[in-house]
Amino acid sequence: MVLCDVCGQALPSEAAARRHLQRSSPGRRQPRCPLCAAAATGCDELRRHMGTAHPEPGPPGCRRPGAPPECPFCGEAAGRELEEHVRARHGHLLGAPGADTGNGEQLYECPMCSLTCTNIQILEEHVDLHLEEHNFSEGGNIRDLELAQQLQTEEDEWQRSEEEKREREEFKKLQRQYGLDNSGGFKQQFLKNMEREVDRGRMQPFEYHKRKADMMESLASGIDDGKTKTSGVIEALCKYYQNENKDVRRVWLSAGVDHFHSSLGDRGWGCGYRNFQMLLSSLLQNSFYNDCLRDTTLIPSIPKLQSMIEDAWREGFDPHGASHFNNRLHGSKAWIGACEIYSLLTSLRIKCQIIDFHKPTGPMGTHPRLFEWILHYYSKDNEGGAKVVCTSKPPIYLQHQGHSRTVVGIEEKKNKSLCLLLFDPGCSSQQMQKLLKQNCDGTGLKLLRKFVGSLKEKQYQIVAVDGVLSLEEKVARCQASQVLTAEKIP
Fold first, then answer.
1. Which residues pair with residue 450 across a beta bridge?
2. Residues 6+ apart with CB under 8 A from 266
């Protein structure tokens, strides 16, 4: 079988192929392009026409940019004289636009190269090819680059917009979390939560009005109403340990401390203030601090404590920390931490220090150095063989990310392991009062006990009280707090 080079017809032999080609020779009907119906004088010219006017598809711009257009019949570069070249060299192939071919077919002329064909759809596709080649060869690359740059710019702007939106949402979330969203403070939250309790049937209207009146009186006087206070726990613990002989080798307890838990007005944000109330309750029971606290004989309410911290800022303590709160705490639900506790205590001439356990010092993210430091704090002035040591040491303020508690003692087990005793503002009065029962079997101590493996936050800070400051020492510490630093361990 032999294939015709022109039309692709399969022929049985070479002789048949020659006869087939002879039928397309001059004197017979001229061969026409199968794509655009252009007439050719012979097969060779038809092949050249198809190779130039209808080349195989290739990547855009495969022809050298700026090269003169080629004749679609003979492939010769004709430049601007393409139309003149086609009419002079191949005029016999062209017909007048709109003319008849002799067999009733209409001829259509390409407006760009004067090529004629009998099918208007083929002509439209042919002109589209001219336009595509023209656009690419005369600035197509530039337009594509400009489009790509525009798309990239739009994508970058969208990403920046989304990032700014996320940052605003995160900032608002942090403001809400730390009580800096101007949604009110203790009073507003107290009233709102009581109204919710009434709506749910958990509080009678008369109780609502009574508690509101008590709250307003407390705010006016600046004194805590004591409704969340539990006293006598340290004394109950001392009695318990004297009779308990199972696995505790020795125990050191702080001086007397009252427990304060969160109320409807500060639930979710008031732990720092409640822990300060616990620490202050112990200092008020110790005559050594009477001179420092002569103007603070009763436990202040949380709004009053906020005002006292603002007063410390106005004296010049910790200006960097004050700026974090825009120098305002009163009327907000802002969280406080070790720096605010230090500033308030120092402004009252109470000597204290911040110890920063800034990274774990034991396996599995634990902080054994924290436990060792607290053991030394309670035991350094209380050497002896007594099993239960009721010290005169004030409790320790313990802070970590998102919460704070009060250290009121430490156990040393018979296997030499250590266990902290903590007062948590999250524990209710009902839970704490279980420790006051005469028949306490120690199960209630689970609320207080924290072993080394229980404290695995990345960082802990403590504020420990260690005496009284003179006026000169207070001024010096105020100046030093312009850049407040802590002792780091390790």
1. 420
2. 186, 189, 273, 274, 302, 333
In contact, 334 and 321? CB cutoff 8 Å: no
**Sign of the C-alpha dihedral, residues 296, 302, 304, 307?**
positive
Active site residue 424: yes
Region of 316 (left: φ > 0; alpha: ψ -120 to 50; beta: rest) is left
Neighbours of 29 (CB within 10 A): 9
- Cβ-contact 486, 397 below 8 angstroms: no
CA 254 – CA 394 distance, rounded (Å): 6
Q: Which of 54, 356, 403, 478 is catalytic?
A: 403
403 a catalytic residue? yes
Give 406: exposed, middle or buried? Use CB within 10 Å, 0-12, 13-18, 19+. buried
In tens digits, what is the pLDDT along the chain, a chain of 490 residues?
A: 667 766 666 777 777 766 666 665 444 456 667 666 677 666 667 667 767 776 655 444 445 555 566 666 666 655 556 667 766 776 655 544 444 555 666 777 776 666 777 777 777 776 666 666 555 454 555 666 787 788 888 888 999 999 888 888 887 776 665 555 677 899 999 999 999 999 999 999 999 999 999 999 999 999 999 999 999 999 999 999 988 767 899 999 999 999 999 999 999 999 999 999 999 999 999 999 999 999 999 999 999 999 999 999 999 999 999 999 999 999 999 999 999 999 999 999 999 999 999 999 999 999 999 999 999 999 998 777 789 999 999 999 999 999 999 999 999 999 999 999 999 999 999 999 999 986 667 788 999 999 999 999 999 999 999 999 999 999 999 999 999 999 999 9
Q: Amino acid identity of 433?
A: Q
CB 77 within 8 A of CB 68: yes
Write the DSSP symbol of residue 265.
Answer: T
**Residue 271 among the catalytic residues:** yes
Catalytic residue among 110, 261, 424, 427: 424
C-beta separation of 350 from 344 below 8 A: no
User: Which one-letter amino acid corresponds to residue 335?
Assistant: W
Return the H-helix or E-strand segment holding 132: helix 120-135
What is the SS3 assignment for 24?
A: coil
Taking the whole predicted model, whether its pTM rises above 0.70 is answered as: no
- Give the residue among 471, 464, 487 at the shortest CA–CA distance from 315: 471
Q: For 464, list phi and psi in degrees, rounded to 5.
A: -115, 130
CA angle 271/274/278 to nearest 5° reads 135
Amino acid letter, 29 = R
Q: Choose the catalytic residue: 71, 110, 271, 352.
A: 271
Q: List the structure tokens of 345.
A: 């205590």
Take residue 123 and report the two structure tokens written for it: 């002509």
